[in-house]
Amino acid sequence: MSRFPLILGRLLKATALTSVVGGASLLSYSYAHDKLENDSAIKDKLPAIIKELPPLPSREALIKRLGPTISEKFGTTKKENEFSASDAQIKYDLIIIGGGATGTGCAVDATTRGLNVLLLEKNDFASGTSSKSTKMAHGGVRYLEKAFWELSKAQLDLVIEALNERSSMLENAPHLSSVLPIMIPVYKWWEVPYMYVGCKLYDFFAGSQNLKSSYILSPSSAIAAAPMLKADNLVSALVYHDGSFNDSRMNVALALTAIKDGATVLNYMEVKQLLKTDDNKVKGVRVVDSETGNEYLVGADAVINATGPKSDTILDMDHDVKGVAPALPLNTPRMVVPSGGVHVMLPDYYCPKDLGLLDPSTSDGRVMFFLPWQGRVLAGTTDTPLKKVPDSPIPSEEEIRDILKELQPYIKFEVKREDVLSAWCGIRPLVKDPRKVPKDGTTQDLVRNHLIHQTDSGLITISGGKWTTYREMAQETIDTVIEKFPELKTNNSKKIALKPCQTKRYKLYGAEFFDRTLAARLAQEYQVPSELAEHLAAYYGDKAGLVLELYKKDEANQLPVGLASDNVKPSYNNFQYPFTVAELKYSIANEYTRHPIDFLARRTRLAMLDAKVGLEAVDGVVKVMGEELNWDNDHKEKVKKETEEFIKYMGIYENTSCFIEDQKH
């Protein structure tokens, strides 16, 4: 038989194969060429790194908006507390007292609708409860369980409200928040279906805004995910998802957003008096600048009391015909029932780096979280009823050890007190319903929902709720203001028709041009370590480039803040955390940082992440701030002592109670 047909067949196959390969090569070349062009186009579509930006108004410029001081206008012709609403020199549409989450949330909501807003904070933004939370944007698994067992619509409404708001937080500040899976270890077989149904209901009530579906793990998978977890008697684990966020940075972002949009927002401005009309209506405030002692009289159509745990202090002022605070708290029904919540910070080996742990039922019936946060582990919280609101709450040793005791059953190795890096106490402003006051005085059964209350004088108070629902609380509060003061709809200072609420999908300061590639692009652009780039992107969002411009400007700006002082000997501790002199200078110039505590505890979280390292950094922070703000030696020594005193009570010493005045060190 001739071999020609066989050879011809092989030749045709080879030709066809060559054609295919050649065509594929041509297509591959064409694709690669197009891809290079597309990569360039993609690069062009990425938001540019912001390297310069017109600054926000300075503190001095904002204060000028308050008009002349009392001494400039009245001299000594009027005594303190003799002022009334008619004496106000400048008028706003709305004054908000309180610069926490609720107050700054109200400022953003009102300003974006078109109102002319003044916000006054006695201390620093987030200096109270708003910087001492569990750092979770969540619906509250405990409230969901209570809702079903107690058939409580109020509890269920709170869960649904918070789940709806959780997605807004994640969308409006993506650089400050993220999705966090949380594992519930299960040690009894009958609890598996119970926990599973609970997690699925949590997903269900989130609806279309559910973050990720919950799922079940085998014991081996649970131990693989969390090697520090005790395996004894572990039968399963459930994983559900919630949000994690940086609370004080979120608070600062709200304040900066309001200022960017035109509001006058000031920290370290204490309201001393509510200015009233002859018919006892609150129409302004007398406020003192804590730094200079200068006092101002400012009028407004409406005044909001958003002071959280201190709500009753402002309400006591409202009870006075002259609007001044009584020498002692009045014996009137209290709007707020205070509860102390302690958290501790532990080293990262107590929890997986990307998975939280939840103890659904502690020995006293609470829920306890152990969460990865900022490279450490956040554990808490306690729930301690208080008879009064302390000015400077601190964690008691009993509460710290209680948290460690609850953690020990889950951890293979010994949970040690000396592992506590820091601890703090926050005061929750729980709304009191006089018809349902717990007989035993506990606060666990009080709903953390909010209450909006207007007094006969027109003062509007918003209290209660929690961080996750701040935006909806603000929306309802401003809705109430507009309803109670309808003249603001058209006869406001700008003479415009007000917009409806804008904040449901409204990017906060730092979020507008933020994207998930920012950290990588910062590392490339400025040739800095990835850890530093990731930190700055997570803290400042699209403004991170402004910090790095300062960083590259001077080698001294690249030092850790703890090494800025001439008196500190370098050690490994100085390089554990990414907080640099550049970041400190940026916060002074752009974020209204006025005290070392502002930077160490709120603009950064160094004191909360590691109180001892924070204490070591005090000298360096004081030195830089003194140079930037022209402090004399007396003031530097004063703020140094205040900062050291503040940090020393963050778990470094064994505190006997939650009140500083009870301590003896």
TrEMBL record:
Keywords (alphabetical) are: FAD, Flavoprotein, Mitochondrion, Oxidoreductase, Signal, Transit peptide
Cofactor(s) the record lists: FAD
Signal peptide residues on this chain, from the entry's feature table: 1-16
A Gene Ontology cellular component where this protein is annotated is: mitochondrion
- Give the domain of life: Eukaryota
Q: Which GO terms describe its biological process?
A: glycerol-3-phosphate metabolic process
Instruction: Indicate the segments forming the Alpha-glycerophosphate oxidase C-terminal domain, all copies.
Output: 501-635
Q: Identify the pathway.
A: Polyol metabolism; glycerol degradation via glycerol kinase pathway; glycerone phosphate from sn-glycerol 3-phosphate (anaerobic route): step 1/1
> What InterPro entries does the annotation carry?
DAO_C, DAO_C_sf, FAD-dep_OxRdtase, FAD/NAD-bd_sf, G3P_DH_FAD-dep
Q: Which GO terms describe its molecular function?
A: glycerol-3-phosphate dehydrogenase (quinone) activity
EC number, as in UniProt: 1.1.5.3
Q: Which spans are transmembrane here?
A: none
Reactions that this protein is recorded to catalyse: a quinone + sn-glycerol 3-phosphate = dihydroxyacetone phosphate + a quinol
Q: Which Pfam families match?
A: DAO (PF01266), DAO_C (PF16901)
Domain called FAD dependent oxidoreductase: residue spans: 93-471
Q: Which family does it belong to?
A: Belongs to the FAD-dependent glycerol-3-phosphate dehydrogenase family.
This protein is called Glycerol-3-phosphate dehydrogenase
Q: Please name the source species.
A: Pachysolen tannophilus
